[in-house]
């Protein structure tokens, strides 16, 4: 892993007011701490930090941090914490931690899937159950990623942490029994048949436009009454 360079300024104002003023000037507030040395408030160009974190090493980048305007020697650091606004997607604060290149540190390393799974070619689904591996090693030995070879996985097969090939000099801290990936059987959508509405036996179909039956009965009753009156006069 290569070391990338980044410049920072020492902040004179701290607290919420100092952080707000820092952002107003287009800078990202942060702190530098670690190795039992005094914590120093700093500010960096967010675009430059973004460039550093988008190298192949990603969040595990080893940074040579230069404090401009001071006689302090450049320090080797890693980004220990990065706060990002979940709505705007912009960085809000960064923590740099001093490290020594000859002392082991812990890191989270992402996985990279390689190979073609026969199970996937047969319609299976590759499912991730773990996305990163926690390791401990010297800073410059931190791998950019850990390969997951799925070329022998059939439907129903899986790989655990213990099945992975780990480079020498790296201690795995994640439980070896934890599953990493698996090939699940293809999902079949269940088709629900809707039964037709049952017909009522003996029911007569409705005739559109026909007069209601009661109207016919009323007419018949009037004719009978008129006939009775005629007979009574005779």
Task: Looking at this protein, list some descriptive labels.
234 residues; alpha+beta; Ribosomal Protein L25, Chain P; RNA Polymerase Alpha Subunit, Chain A, domain 2; 2 domains; six-stranded mixed β-barrel; four-stranded mixed β-sheet; 13 strands; 35% strand; flat
What does this structure look like?
This protein is an alpha+beta fold and 234 residues long. It is 18% helix and 35% strand. It folds into two domains: 3-98, Ribosomal Protein L25, Chain P, CATH 2.40.240.10; 105-184, Ribosomal protein L25, C-terminal domain (RNA Polymerase Alpha Subunit, Chain A, domain 2), CATH 2.170.120. The chain has helices at 15-24, 46-53, 118-121, 213-233, and strands at residues 3-10, 28-34, 37-44, 62-68, 75-84, 91-98, 105-114, 125-128, 132-137, 146-149, 158-160, 171-172, 179-184. The strands form three sheets. The protein has a six-stranded mixed barrel with strand order 1-3-2-6-5-4. Strands 10-7-9-12 form a four-stranded mixed beta sheet, with no helix packed on it. It is flat, with a radius of gyration of 38 Å. The model has no long low-confidence stretch (mean pLDDT 86).
